[in-house]
Write a structure and sequence with these properties.
Strands 1-2-3-4-5 form a five-stranded parallel β-sheet, with helices on one face. It is globular, with a radius of gyration of 30 Å. It is built from 16 helices and twelve strands.
Amino acid sequence: MEFFGSARNRKSFNVRMKLLRSRHGKTETPFCVRYFKWILWFSLSFYFFATSLGNHRPATSSLKTIISQPQQLSVSGVPSDAAVLRQPRSLKDLRVYIYELPSNYNSDWLSNHRCGSHLFASEVAIHKALIKSDVRTFDPSVADFFFVPVYVSCNFSTVNGFPAIGHARGILSSAVEFISSELPFWNRSNGSDHVFVASHDYGACFHAMENKAVADGIPEFMKNSIVLQTFGVKYRHPCQDVENIVIPPYVSPEKVQSVLSMSPITGQRDIFVFFRGKMEVHPKNVSGQFYSKRVRTEILRKYGSDRRFYLRRNRFAGYLSEIVRSVFCLCPLGWAPWSPRLVESIALGCVPVIIADGIRLPFETAVPWSEISLTVAERDIGTLGSILDYVAATNLSSIQRTLWDPRVQRALMFHDDVEVGDATWQILFALSAKLGISNQK
């Protein structure tokens, strides 16, 4: 670079030099000129040091890792970055003590392989993951929470093969009596820092029929505790009148990965609208209730002959292979508002269409439900076809882009080991938030 390339530059330079002369006639070099090299060296060093700090990223190999999060959702409803985990989170301060109960409360039930694989198996999955997690402590005196591992959904009826939970209250009461007599921690807090799982239709009311569940209510001995339950609604309901965290139903990650290995999530989807499950042509009144509040019957009646709708009433073991081929997957209520189809659809990239008024969804502060699913009111079944046509013609690609983010799938799936962001991790973070430590590092 030339500093004095012209006569004008030289003249300017001479004027500046005259201004620098002292009254003794000697030229004084200004401080910035005398130490220019040192100032330049320091500035460059500081710049490169600051840049290296800005580019540093922590590792993400441990449960205790603090991970960076996506940006918040934009006002338009389209995510600026597929948002699942909204704030930096850490579980390094959380401690959970797991009671070691006699095997008849849990592991004995695993002799039936269905115990650890059916839709209510989150009670098993959470227990297994916690046993191996970094948050586990063997010292109950330092524990923040106490996990009570009782499997109540593994007693399968010999008549219809469904879980029979009539024994749930008795076995849970027995477990509480056992832990309160062996250790002082239940009595110390009256059970308020103890955690149970209720992974069936009406949660801590422990009955599959709503009228019976409401009549029985939540067992008195559990009313101070924290219940992890699949049942959740946004209105007042006796079966959620307890400190609770809404969790997803269990879907086997192995089965999901097996399907995705054959049909990738971004593959061809030749089924427009999919549903396979119980749809009664003539619904029967059971204890004053109609199954699915007749919603499924109305879907069959209205769209049974519509070629856009792939509706099947019979069971099919490989139905996950149909979900991965589908654009929209109907998730209507059954006896309770929630359904395993919700997780199955998301795991396999099919846009869930939730038809269950007032449902409270799992991990609502973490999963961007409004970006990845559609909610249709039960009374609007008659316009379901036109609603889905409109979405397909407008913002389907935006919904799918967010839905297919692996972090969305991970947040609703249980694994053998706790993975950062997975369902058990989300539960632990929800627990830590109750202690006010979720944003500590």
